[in-house]
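task queued by scheduler; priority normal; single chain, no ligands, no partner chains; default sampling; output format set to structure tokens
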Amino acid sequence: MNIKRVGIDLAKDVFQIHGVDSQEKVIVRKQLRRSQMLAYFGKIQPCLIGMEACGGAHYWARELQKQGHTVKLMAPQFVKPYVKSNKNDANDAEAICEAVARPTMRFVAIKTLAQQDIQAIHRIRSELIRHRTAKVNQIRGLLAEYGLTVGRRVDVLRTALPLLLEDAINGLTLDFRMLLEDLRQDLVQLDQRVDDMDAKIKLLASSHSEAKRLLAIPGIGPITATALICAIGDGSQFKRGRDFAAWLGLTPKQHSSGGKERLLGISKRGDSYLRTLLIHGARSVLRVAGNKDDPRSRWLQSLCARRNKNIAAVALANKNARIVWALIARQTDFLPEAKPA
């Protein structure tokens, strides 16, 4: 069986495959159980395999590459236009097989195990922060029912809770004080879990050569550096820094027609987590730019004088994203603008 290209519709237990030969004739269309996947592809000649970048895709891509196959991952929204008629597993696999052969298709870089380990830390940390925010809002809401208000900041609530529990004349009942103490302990545990994740990220950033190179860029700390590394790897999937910035959604969205170009706000495509980290890092640089006289700070001061500070923060995040790609893809060190290359 001379299979040239295969499309796989991934799932938890049942996988649909669609294969064609060099004449684009369909020669295989079948379902495979999870336990049959590696054995089946180990028997056929190495070929091009296309899959959507979804849960488990990076694992299967690495395993199939070990067997000599060429594996390419695609974003699901780029595969959708190739689905014919109704949606089902067979049609999805056929669409994937068709899309992976397009010369202009954009592919997703396959993550290594090290990248997935770093990504897991960031995902867990983000979930813990969401839980902590929900816990803070719950405590503030319950206190408001007793006529007590606390500021929205987490550190303000941490400071206020012991004082509220010790205050005997604030109107809190004994039963609610016991419940409030339990909630405070929950908040302490969540804080400890977040601190543990931060410590792991700092350790990774201090031991990873690429992360240490990114830490030299103003506005990029250990969290942002490690998140960027686990997301883009060696940066080879992008031709230039502008492509990386566009992938992050930091470039203007277009609505042009008839030769008339119309640029809108930033597109907000791509990974919102990375975009948020870069913009928050840019805001921290913007906050102290007025006290400095280097070329970057002067550029920021001039930009803030003409435009809104949020626009300046996004512009700096865009600049930092392009610098990040250059440092990773070209294996160079960051040179401050005040120093000649």
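post-processing summary
- The longest strand covers residues 26-33.
- The chain has a mean pLDDT of 92.
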